[in-house]
Design goal:
little secondary structure, Pectate Lyase C-like, about 5% strand, 1 helix
């Protein structure tokens, strides 16, 4: 049994790993409550879905289709998003600490105020991506395309704060 707090509400449910998203979703009323646990897996088609506030720590979403998905405030720390499509996804305020986003497409995605400390963003496509206020300490941006990305107020990989 694992408990979750969302605002002043306490949610309890039986969970293991990524299946905790279902327990959390019962409190938040987002689309995650409509998924069978087998849908939150590598290669899943979650395009346009509302996964805001979802608990996806360590989830294997390699190659997942997340175009236009709402992942506001989601906890994806340690998640595997290798080759995931996050085109126009909203990950504002999300926890992506130590997440693997290698070769992901994050074109036009919103990662404002997200925490990407130690994340692997190598080979990632991030054209017009919004990183305003994001924490990028120790993140790996090698071989990534960051054309027109917005880093205003972001803490950069070396610890400096972008103006």
């Amino acid at each position: 049994m694992r408990s979750f707090a969302r605002g002043a509400v306490i949610c309890a449910g039986v969970c293991a790993g990524i299946f905790c998203v279902l327990a959390l979703a019962a409190c938040g009323g987002n689309d995650a409550a409509k998924f069978a646990p087998s849908e939150i897996v590598a290669g899943a088609n979650l395009a346009g879905r509302d996964l805001s506030g979802a608990y996806l720590v360590g989830a294997d979403l390699a190659g997942a289709e997340l175009t236009g998905a709402n992942l506001v405030g989601a906890n994806l720390s340690g998640a595997n998003l290798l080759d995931a499509n996050l085109y126009q996804a909203d990950l504002s305020g999300a926890n992506l600490v130590a997440a693997n986003l290698h070769r992901a497409d994050m074109t036009d995605a919103n990662l404002s105020n997200a925490d990407l400390t130690g994340a692997d963003l190598s080979g990632t496509f991030m054209v017009n991506t919004d990183f305003r206020g994001a924490i990028l300490l120790g993140a790996d941006f090698s071989r990534s395309n960051r054309t027109n990305a917005n880093y205003a107020g972001a803490t950069m990989p070396d610890g400096t704060v972008n103006p």
